[in-house]
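Holo model, nicotinamide-adenine-dinucleotide. Inputs:
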Amino acid sequence: MSSLPSIATVIGSGTMGPGIAATLARAGATVRLYDISEDAIARAEAAYGVVQGVLAAVDSPSAPGGSVSFGTDLDAALEGTELIIEAVPEKLELKQKVFADLEARIGDEVIIATNTSGIPITTMAESLRVPGRLIGMHWSNPPHLIPMIEIIPGQATDEALVGQLVDIVKAFNYVPVLEKEIPGFVENRVLYAILRECMALLEEGIVTPEGLDACVKWGIGYKLSVIGPTRLLDMAGLDIYQAVSSYLNKDLDVSTDTPQFIKDKIAEGKLGFKSNGGMYEYGEGDVDAKRKEIVTGLIAARKTLSSIPNV
Ligand SMILES: NC(=O)c1ccc[n+]([C@@H]2O[C@H](COP(=O)([O-])OP(=O)(O)OC[C@H]3O[C@@H](n4cnc5c(N)ncnc54)[C@H](O)[C@@H]3O)[C@@H](O)[C@H]2O)c1
Ligand SMILES: Cc1ncc(CO)c(C(=O)O)c1O
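Output:
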């Protein structure tokens, strides 16, 4: 755990911040979780116990001395910090304002890692006093359960920082995936390619939502959780891939915009779990039950996947 910073600060305690803070703290870091919203901090404090239980259940690496403190005082959150992880909403101007507020308070040696889902690091760094300190650190949701982090240097990122962040990620036993900068990074490019085809199949009435979920979960997710797409091609045979891709690729969806039926749902206020309806409808208590089922499933799957060889 020697590469782990002693003190780290997480900026933004919404969906991602608390799980990120808890993961670092369990590995031994003193973590300060900061938000501008008192309500968000209160929610994060309430959720922290649950997240700690989940980390214990998956046997997440643990070292003594770690802690999370919660607050809306930025100066206090930054005192002595070595690593800042920014997890505020995905808006370039907001992130750049946050970076300016941070840089007014920290020394040049402090690392800023951004959890952006895909805004180019190079663009974000343009407004920084010390552009070399900014690097992409894309956690996957839920961050305390998915043990993989994409690391994306921008054009201005210090070369030494790349290796340093790789070592930090390894120190809490996550898998660092180093990438070149590209919109959406690798994980979301693959996910959005899958989602584009899925939404087109639904829109054309080819399959029901239930059928689609079962097909992707068992036919694709189950297999890919064990072998990965590159190895899958070796298992299937490159000749089979050529035979199928030669007629299928030209038939796949290539739309460049969000599907109209998704836009219509959003216009009706159907956003998913957060509005008790989206792709599916949810009655009283259904969303909480589904959330629990998802966490239980992810815990069980992570334990299993951690216990089998990387093939
Ligand atoms: N939600 C996901 O599944 C997910 C996954 C990977 C990456 N990300 C990325 O992580 C980042 C955060 O996403 P999220 O889903 O946690 O967002 P969120 O909206 O749930 O939470 C953001 C938090 O930031 C706070 N905030 C707003 N302005 C602030 C400021 N100036 N200073 C401090 N805090 C401020 C808000 O009060 C809120 O609590 C985004 O860049 C997002 O794209 C999200
Ligand atoms: C649909 C979707 N879009 C973005 C993200 C975060 O980058 C996720 C996720 O689960 O992490 C997602 O599911």
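The chain has two domains: 7-183, 186-306. The beta strands are 7-11, 30-34, 67-71, 83-86, 111-114, 134-139, 148-153, 175-178.
Archived with the compound record.
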